[in-house]
Specification:
Helix 3 packs antiparallel against helix 5 and helix 5 runs antiparallel to helix 6. The longest helix has 19 residues. The protein has six helices and no strands. The model has no long low-confidence stretch (mean pLDDT 85). By secondary structure, the protein is mainly α.
Length: 127
């Protein structure tokens, strides 16, 4: 041991000699995102991926996203009744936002035409 070796350096060297750094998770694997540009919101994106979240934000903005993605939402449904129920629920929540019953920014989200969504759903199922 070098007499000028720092205490921390000595502890690391001794741990290496004992094999405490062998077989660590991720050993031999590339470092994730190495070489990409820095993203200050990396932790938010990672959290959303890990928790399988699709949208994090004020409820009013989430409703806008739900309205935009309605066809993807109803595509997996097998009955017209279920599709109408989903659209009715979304429309009711949109009306709550319009009344100011939900916190968040004031946004304009139009209610969906239930018959139009059902017609598009039927077209998609037929193809």
């Amino acid at each position: 041991m070098d007499r000028h070796e720092l205490r921390v350096d000595r502890q690391i060297r001794e741990a290496e000699e004992r094999g405490e750094f062998a077989n660590l998770p991720g050993a031999g694997k590339p470092i994730p995102n190495l070489g990409t540009t820095y993203d200050e919101n990396w932790w938010v994106r990672e959290y959303m991926r890990r928790e399988k979240l699709s949208f994090v934000g004020p409820p009013a903005l989430a409703l806008r996203k739900e309205a935009e993605d309605i066809m993807d939402t109803v595509a997996k449904e097998y009955s017209e009744r279920a599709v109408r129920g989903i659209v009715a629920d979304l429309n009711a929540r949109i009306l709550e936002v319009r009344r100011g019953a939900v916190e968040g920014p004031s946004i304009v989200v139009n209610t969906l035409d239930e018959d139009e969504v059902v017609a598009r759903w039927k077209e998609h199922r037929a193809s």
